[in-house]
Amino acid sequence: MDWGQGRYEVVAEQLLPVAEVVVEEAGLSPGERVVDVGCGTGNGALLAAERGATVVGVDPAKRLLDVAASRAAERQLHVSFLVGDAESIPVPDDGADVVLSVFGAIFAPDPEEAAAEMARVLDPDGRMLLSAWIPEGPVSQAVRLSRETVNEILGQPPAQPPFPWHEGDGLERLFGRHGLAVSVEQHEISFGASSAREFIELEERNHPLAVAARPVVEKAGRGDELREALLRHYEEANEDSSGFLVTSRYVIAKVTPR
Fold first, then answer.
1. Which domains does the chain have, with CATH numbers?
2. Is the pTM of this model over 0.70?
3. Could you read off the pLDDT of 89-136 as tens digits, one per residue?
């Protein structure tokens, strides 16, 4: 998956409130070493730098790192942005007092390897904060519908359920073997537009997942079919009679030494 396609910076702007909550709950102090895993266009990394932390942002998408670096320069913030991912973080052992990941680590193909790598770079007295979607609600269901359509077109079997990054028990098993404990808090965020149709069009143009799916669906002649199915879905879920609004729930997991 190339997260540099589309315009993730537009999506990232919608997700900024989550980064603000994650950084606030991290309770950063000036001079603390922060690694933002899956930093994208730098939401969490820049907020951490504004609080005086020494920050490294890591992401596999070079284009997004370039956008993040440009944003940092505009705000006169010093942040190091490096190519890497949750399973291969270019930071020394114990090199972070705080590891952050705002909807980044949850996309790692191998959750166990990602957890081990994040634990490796975390100082023994450090803390880790990760946000993860709760797989329910209108947006999650729409993503699932699109994925199922693509799988059907390609003749692929249904995707296996992803690792439950939103569940405390699963996270305890994942990080417990590294001597870490996990606590989980639920939050929510709303997404809006002037209409459900506009929201779908914005996602189609900007979200990397939608951009990647579009040529597959269009080539099969099912673009209009999927678009209308999504429209019906979102109109039924709409919470705002004068426009469009849907709410998604997510968790913030705080991982600390036992």
1. 8-257 (3.40.50.150)
2. yes
3. 999 999 999 999 999 999 999 999 999 999 999 999 999 999 999 999
- Ranges of residues in the chain with a pLDDT under 70 are none
> Mean pLDDT score of the chain, rounded to an integer?
96
| Non-local CB neighbours of 68 within 8 Å, separated by 6+ positions | 39, 40, 41, 42, 45, 46, 57, 59, 79, 81
Length of the chain: 258
2: tokens are 């190339």
Q: Which residues of 203-229 are buried (b: 16+ CB within 10 A; e: fewer)?
A: bbebbbbbbbbbebbeeeebbeebeee
DSSP annotation of 166 reads: T
Residue 110: HSE in the Cβ half-sphere, 13 Å Cα cutoff: 9
Q: How far apart are CA 17 and CA 190, in angstroms?
A: 10
